[in-house]
Amino acid sequence: SGMWWDDVLGRGERVLMDGVVYKRKGLFSTKRGLLLTDLPRLVFYDETKHLLKSEIPWSESLKVELKGRKHFFIHTVKRTWYLEDPEGDAQRWVEKISELLKRS
């Protein structure tokens, strides 16, 4: 495979989806890479420096919500992440995350 994230992910952890999203907080949004792995894990990274930044804590109570072609929300007990996929791939994120939630 030889991807940069081979060094930062757990042994045998596979990336199922990778894309660029905008994280919205108040009036500001930050551009981040987002990885969905088979652990499952949702990890934000800096796509210019390839550094892991933060993680959305995965649990059975995690909920994902489609808000149109480009927007989706991820709800956890403590907070909600407002995400925009500039490629208009929001539905694919929602489907993939939902699939993993059924399994966990």
Automatic annotation (TrEMBL):
SUPFAM superfamilies: PH domain-like. It comes from the Eukaryota. Residues 15-104 form the PH domain. GO terms for molecular function: kinase activity. Pfam families: PH_3. The keyword Glycosyltransferase does not apply. Keywords: Kinase, Transferase. InterPro entries: PDK1-typ_PH, PH-like_dom_sf, PH_domain. This is 3-phosphoinositide dependent protein kinase-1.
